[in-house]
Write a structure and sequence with these properties.
The chain has 2 helices and 23 strands. By secondary structure, it is an alpha/beta fold. It starts with a strand and ends in a 6-residue tail after the last strand. The protein binds coenzyme A. Coenzyme A (COA) binds next to loops.
Length: 213
C-alpha cells in the first residue's frame, strides 16, 4: 500500500502511526500542527509543519488527536491548504473486527482489539480507541471519539463531535446528542441532550452548555 500522512507529530501521532503500519501502510510523513509542544520521542521521518503545506504536498491522511473539535478544525484547514486534493485514509488495526455489514467512512481510525458490530454506521473522521465495542445498528455522526475500553450497546445514536471517555458504557437504544462529553467510567442509561457533559454511574448531566471536546 502507498504511504499516508499522519496529522500530529507527537505522542498519539506515533500510536496512530503504529496502527497504520500494522494495517500495512507506509508512513509518508507527519504533519506537525503545534511545534511548541514539547515532544520527548522523535522519529526518523519526514515532518511537514502545517503552515508549509502546499497544494499536492499531502495526498492521503489520518488525524491523530483525540479532541473532536481539533480534529474537525484541522481537517477543514487541510482541505483549504491542500487545495482540496488531500483525501481521507481509513485505518483499521488487524486485530480489530469490523463487521462486513458495518459501514465506516473516510478518515476513521479503529485501534487494536475493537469490535464494530453488524449494521453499525460510523460517520467521517471517527476515532475508535483500543478495545472498544460498538453494538449492532448503532450510528455515530462525524468527528466522534470513542475512548479505550468503551462499550456502546446496540441501536444507539451518537451525534457528531461527541467524545466518550475511557471505559464508559452506553446502554442500548440510547441517543447522545452532539458535542457531548461522557466522563470516564460513566454508565449512560438515558438519552443525553446536545452539549452535555455527563459522568457517573448512572450518568448525570453536570453541564448542559458544554462546547464539545
Ligand atoms: C468528566 C471529566 C471531563 C471531568 O473533568 P474535570 O471537569 O476536569 O473534573 P475534575 O478533574 O476537576 O474533577 C471534578 C470532580 O469530578 C470528579 N470526577 C472527575 N472525573 C470523573 C469521572 N469520570 N467520573 C466520576 N467523577 C469524576 C472528581 O473526582 C472531582 O470530584 P471532587 O470535586 O469530589 O473532588 C473527566 O474527568 C473525564 O472523565 N474525562 C475523560 C478522560 C478520558 O476518557 N480520556 C481519554 C483519553 S484516551
Amino acid at each position: 500500500m502507498d504511504g499516508i500522512w499522519i496529522i500530529g507529530y507527537r505522542d498519539f501521532g506515533f500510536e496512530v502511526a503504529d496502527v497504520a503500519q500494522e494495517a500495512g501502510y507506509a508512513i509518508a510523513g507527519y504533519v506537525e500542527y503545534d511545534a511548541s509542544e514539547k515532544q520527548e520521542e522523535r522519529r526518523e521521518a519526514r515532518i511537514l509543519p502545517i503552515d508549509e503545506m502546499t497544494p499536492g504536498a499531502v495526498d492521503r491522511f489520518v488525524c491523530a488527536m483525540t479532541s473532536t473539535l481539533l480534529r474537525q478544525s484541522l481537517v477543514e484547514r487541510i482541505a483549504v491548504l491542500s487545495g482540496g486534493t488531500a483525501a481521507p485514509a481509513s485505518v483499521v488495526h488487524p486485530s480489530a473486527t469490523v463487521s462486513r455489514h458495518a459501514k465506516t467512512q473516510g478518515g476513521t481510525v479503529v485501534m487494536a482489539g475493537s469490535v464494530i458490530a453488524s449494521g453499525a454506521k460510523l460517520g467521517q473522521w471517527n476515532l475508535v480507541n483500543r478495545g472498544a465495542t460498538i453494538g449492532h445498528h448503532t450510528q455515530f455522526g462525524d468527528y466522534c471519539t470513542v475512548g479505550p475500553g468503551v462499550h456502546v450497546g446496540g441501536n444507539c445514536n451518537i451525534e457528531r463531535n461527541t467524545y466518550i471517555g475511557i471505559g464508559a458504557t452506553v446502554l442500548n437504544y440510547i441517543r447522545i446528542g452532539s458535542h457531548c462529553l461522557v466522563g470516564a467510567g460513566a454508565v449512560v442509561t438515558k438519552d443525553v441532550p446536545d452539549h452535555s457533559l455527563v459522568m457517573g454511574v448512572p450518568a448525570r448531566v453536570i453541564k448542559s452548555d458544554f462546547p464539545g471536546r
